[in-house]
Write a structure and sequence with these properties.
Blueprint: H1 5-16, H2 18-59, E1 75-78, E2 84-88, H3 105-115, H4 127-139, H5 151-159, H6 171-191, H7 194-204, H8 214-222, H9 231-238, H10 253-269, H11 275-283, H12 285-302, H13 309-324, H14 330-339, E3 343-346, H15 350-361, E4 371-381, E5 387-391, H16 392-402, E6 410-411, H17 414-431, E7 441-450, E8 452-459, E9 464-469, H18 494-507, E10 515-518, E11 539-542, H19 543-549, H20 552-562, H21 564-573, E12 583-585, E13 588-590, H22 608-619, E14 623-625, E15 630-634, E16 640-643, E17 649-651, H23 655-671, E18 685-690, E19 696-702, E20 707-713, H24 731-743, E21 758-764, E22 780-786, E23 798-804, E24 818-824, H25 863-866, H26 871-885, H27 888-897
Parallel strand pairs: 1-3
Antiparallel strand pairs: 1-2, 3-15, 4-5, 4-6, 4-7, 8-9, 8-20, 10-11, 12-13, 14-17, 15-16, 18-19, 19-20, 21-22, 23-24
Length: about 900
């Protein structure tokens, strides 16, 4: 620098120059303006930020801990002993709430260690965690992040801010939600104990395999309550929560184990566990995943995901009762049932249900040959983009027309069914010009073992259904076809007791001693009533004998006398919901108020559970209890929603009527059509049932303890085989005995209780009246009566005098086969009961009367017989027949024809 005079002068000039001064002032001014603007922007930005923050906070709803609770819980089902047997689960509801007392400390500490190690220290927001997360994000260039959300924030995210998964890349939404989440976490932490927050968190989180909360996860992975978890098991469950798919211990054990070991190490570091506990847990790490797999195998083997027939029926009944009795709408009832955390106390006796399951699966209870019913559907994709659909009906039509006219979708093996499927598919593919490759079609099929079965067991004293089976074979899913509660089948001869004889004894003035003639008889439309046997007719029969031997004609005659309307009314009172007094279907009116109702002839059929309940009514002294599958339904807060602990009842039959029917049905088992169901010395009463063409077979019966109804048949109404080699018609009786004999193991044998008002009396079985000494001696029996109904008139059927040994009728004057004896005369019933009868013999009240007409009741050997030129040949033939038969009547005739020896003095 020049410090001479010239240099100094030059410097002074430059300093005093105007232009540089103006430049400096301008720069200074700009700097001042910029600084002012910057301050304004900062202040405004801060103010805006504060305003936005305050707006976000203001828009955040005030919540207390009671609001921070999961919205959906599993509904749990318990058996009659209080054991959990099933649960109903809706979407996002597979959760079972437990208290902190039920959660082991190791499990709680495992979640803290792996998810929020400063949980017990921070105020709801973990500042250190946020800084750590931010640092990790910066140093990795955004490629690696660490979660900074606390357990409190995660709880809020899972319950309050449930739409966080839809935020995507929307930064504004993310920031807003994060601010609200942090603010609310701070507020809740001020007012709430840490353990309360942690407990709600552990009841909320997704832990894989469709489980929510630690209790559901513990049951799913280890088959036990969370209170029983070991330390290693606690670490496995806690390590799942960060990513329930990636760390699923069942599907990805290799990833879960890494995180579980990290969890245990952190628990040791935080002094939640000791070194010894850590060592034991680490040593168990290999075995813990083996246990998880074993439990999963057990679940698969029992097919618990498909539920049970009982559970399905229970769900439907509770849903309906919530609508009808508790006032819920259908939608609200459904939601409450599947995600409301209800506790349903069922009537199932698990011991009885288990043995029903075993017997239904026992091949010894079925014929050797199992058939398969095919349900089939096929969709073909054509080249032009259109589709063609084919059903099992199309398949049946094709095979009937082209292969076998008797084709009915029943196959002797599954392989045979597969061959038929392949053949039909190829045919329709060819018809549509489509190549038979997988990309060109979709087909669905299911094969069901046949014949099928259903079983219901009811405790008659309460009406509680203790067990049921809706079909044989593997149950494929929830709410599948339940043949015990959903399907309707013809009840056959089981209706003889309910529709015909019960009302006759209860309100029509008849008794078990009343008689009918088992002889040709026709319905009002002229169709003959057919008996189930092919050995002619049984003649004079009491009602008791008609029940014992299941006589069709007598049952129909009896219903005709008491009127089908009376029989129908009793069936309604017995609880049958599927019968009709008049309904139009496809333009045609159908009614079950008809004579064939006595044989189970109904428009639709009946449900097994309702038939069982009807017979349980007889077993219960005539008192009907609606069949119920639960005793109580309770809400998660303990409020009783439905209560069946005191079942509703109604008196359908007099107690005396119920006893008389019971005693007659004991004969069915001891010497009638149901003899094969007997076991030990247990008192059993019941009735067989077989429908036309052997489409359905039943046995409905009871002991002093339980009532059981069993059904067997083909789902598509194929006739059951009655051949000795493959006797499918015996399945219902075989199954009834198999089930009931095991149910009653250990129960003492006892007789059916006799009510007051039952008396005994001697009757003639050929007239139903008081026996006459010397005439009715061979036909006298002791019968039970309701007091006041025993007969007062004497027998007018038996005859004493000359009898024809061939015709067994009073002998005509010219008869050559005469012997003196006693014989019942043929009965003549009311003309309405004998088609074509020309002579009417009735009592004033229209009931049956007996008579001895002067001519028609004598033997054939009268004047007109001997007027036949061939009478001698006929007599020779008849004599030969009697000699061959050597009947007592022929022997009596021969003895009386021999000359008498003079008395010896």
């Amino acid at each position: 620098m020049n410090y001479g005079k010239n240099g100094i002068r030059t410097r002074q000039k430059s300093l005093s120059a105007k232009y540089p001064k103006w430049i400096r002032k301008l720069v200074l001014t700009c700097v001042r303006v910029f600084l002012a603007a910057f301050v304004v922007v900062v202040v405004c930005g801060a103010a805006a930020g504060i305003g936005i923050f305050q707006g976000i906070i203001a828009s955040t709803e005030t919540r207390n801990l009671d609001d921070i609770a999961p919205s959906g819980q599993s509904t749990l089902i318990y058996d009659s002993e209080g054991n959990e047997i099933d649960k109903y689960v809706s979407t996002d509801s597979n959760r079972i709430i437990v208290t902190m007392e039920e959660i082991p400390a190791n499990l709680a500490h495992a979640f803290v260690a792996i998810e929020d190690e400063r949980f017990y220290e921070h105020n709801g927001i973990d500042i250190k965690g946020m800084i750590r997360s931010g640092y990790q994000f910066i140093i990795t260039g955004g490629e690696e992040t660490q979660g900074a959300s606390t357990i409190t924030q995660q709880l809020l995210k899972n319950i309050i801010f449930t739409d966080w998964t839809s935020e995507g890349d929307n930064l504004i939404k993310k920031v807003k939600r994060k601010l609200q989440e942090q603010y609310m976490a701070l507020e809740i932490t001020k007012l709430t104990e840490k353990d309360d927050i942690l407990c709600r968190y552990m009841n909320t989180i997704n832990l894989g395999q469709n489980t929510l909360g630690v209790q559901s996860a513990s049951l799913r992975y280890f088959g036990k309550n969370c209170s029983q978890l070991t330390l290693s098991e606690c670490a496995v469950i806690a390590s799942t929560t960060q990513n329930p798919t990636a760390y699923n211990p069942l599907r990805n054990p290799d990833k879960n184990v890494i995180r579980s070991k990290k969890c245990l190490s952190k628990m040791l570091e935080l002094a939640f566990i000791t070194q010894a506990e850590y060592d034991v847990a680490m040593a168990d790490m290999d075995d813990v995943y083996t246990r998880i797999q074993q439990n999963d195998n057990n679940i698969t083997e029992t097919n618990s995901e498909a539920g049970s027939f009982f559970s399905d029926a229970l769900q439907k009944q509770v849903l309906q009762d919530m609508i009808n009795d508790a006032g819920y709408t259908e939608s609200a009832a459904y939601t409450k049932l599947l995600s409301g955390g209800l506790r349903i106390y069922s009537t199932m006796d698990s011991k009885i249900q288990n043995l029903l399951d075993e017997e239904a699966a026992n091949p010894d209870n079925y014929p050797n040959t199992t058939f398969w019913y095919l349900d089939y559907a096929l969709t073909i994709y054509k080249a032009d983009g259109s589709t063609v659909n084919y059903s099992k009906e199309n398949m049946r039509t094709y095979f009937k027309e082209n292969v076998n006219k008797n084709f009915n979708l029943i196959f002797s093996s599954q392989d045979e069914a597969y061959e038929a499927i392949a053949l039909f598919r190829q045919v329709v593919m060819d018809e549509n010009g489509v190549e038979n490759i997988e990309d060109n079609y979709v087909e669905a099929f299911n094969m069901t073992a046949q014949p099928q079965i259903s079983i219901t067991v009811i405790d008659q004293s309460t009406g509680y259904v203790v067990a049921l089976i809706g079909g044989r074979g593997t149950k494929e899913g929830r709410l599948t076809l339940n043949r015990a509660t959903d399907t309707v089948r013809s009840p056959g001869s089981t209706f003889k007791v309910l529709a015909s004889f019960a009302p006759a004894l209860d309100s029509a003035g008849l008794t078990l001693a009343n008689v009918y003639i088992d002889a040709p008889f026709s319905y009002e439309d002229g169709r003959p009533v057919k008996n189930w046997y092919n050995t002619g007719y049984k003649g004079i029969c009491t009602i008791r004998y008609a029940i014992e031997q299941s006589l069709n004609i007598v049952a129909v005659k009896n219903l005709t006398v008491i009127t089908p309307q009376l029989g129908y009314d009793y069936l309604v009172n017995f609880g049958f919901t599927t019968i009709t007094a008049g309904e139009t279907i496809n333009g045609k009116v159908y009614s079950d108020v008809i004579q064939s109702l006595a044989l189970g002839g109904t428009t639709r059929g009946v449900k097994n559970v309702e038939l069982c309940a009807a017979y349980a009514t007889i077993a219960n002294g005539g008192v009907y209890c609606e069949p119920k599958l639960y005793t109580k339904v309770v809400g998660p807060d303990g409020t009783v929603i439905l209560d069946n602990t005191t079942p509703e009842t109604r008196q359908v039959l007099k107690a005396t009527t119920a006893y008389l029917l019971t005693d007659a049905m004991v004969d069915v088992v001891t010497r009638g059509t149901g003899g094969s169901v007997r076991f030990n010395d247990m008192a059993i009463a019941g009735k067989t049932g077989t429908t036309t063409d052997n489409w359905d077979v039943w046995f409905a019966g009871f002991t002093p303890y339980y009532t059981c109804a069993t059904w067997a048949g083909y789902d598509n109404n194929v006739s059951l085989s009655s051949s000795t080699a493959n006797k499918e018609t015996d399945i219902a009786k075989v199954m009834w005995k198999a089930v009931m004999s095991r149910i009653h193991e250990g129960l003492p044998n006892q007789s059916f209780p006799r009510p007051t008002g039952i008396v005994t009396g001697s009757v003639c079985t050929k007239s139903g009246k008081l026996p006459v000494a010397g005439l009715c001696d061979d036909s006298v029996t002791t019968e039970y009566f309701a007091e006041g109904t025993q007969p007062t008139e004497s027998c007018d059927v038996h005859y004493s005098g000359p009898i024809c040994a061939y015709d067994h009728l009073p002998a005509s004057d010219l008869c050559e086969f005469v012997y003196n004896g006693v014989s019942p005369l043929p009965l003549v019933e009311d003309a309405s009961l004998i088609s074509g009868s020309t002579t009417v013999y009735t009592n004033p009240d229209g009931t049956i009367s007996h008579s001895v007409p002067p001519t028609t009741n004598r033997c054939q050997h009268d004047e007109s017989f001997y007027a036949n030129p061939d009478y001698e040949a006929i007599l020779i033939q008849q004599r030969w027949e009697m000699e061959q038969g050597n009947t007592p009547e022929w022997q009596a005739h021969q003895a009386q024809m021999q000359p008498q020896e003079p008395p010896v003095e």
